[in-house]
Amino acid sequence: xxxxxxxxxxxxxxxxxxxxxxxxxxxxxxxxxxxxxxxxxxxxxxxxxxxxxxxxxxxxxxxxxxxxxxxxxxxxxxxxxxxxxxxxxxxxxxxxxxxxxxxxxxxxxxxxxxxxxxxxxxxxxxxxxxxxxxxxxxxxxxxxxxxxxxxxxxxxxxxxxxxxxx
Length: 166
Description:
With 166 residues, the chain is mainly alpha-helical. The protein is 72% helix and 4% strand.
């Protein structure tokens, strides 16, 4: 069982290092597609090759694959939130930078400055080809965006979360 844990966690850590390299050195324009390739497509072929070309116990390989998949899916799901300039984190960092003296609400608002978070997010969605702009300047979901909207709407509905809350 220790080998299953080591293989699943080890595969995730190796692919995390691959992602860090790809994001820093050559750079990736479509991050969500890149995450899918690095964490889902590439390991699928690696685990398939391991099953076909090694004498590894198939059950151990399947269990390691499920552990890896759980880690990868959790990471993919949280990645967009972690890479953003999250207002809550900006507030925490501003208060921390003020030191022991603390910071007033007005000071926090001044430290945050102009908020370009919405425009940055729209640029990200556009570069990931999740949204597009028509000739009239209106935003529309592209096929990948429509698919993600359906998946997450269904997921949130399953969890009992209301639209726009949580």
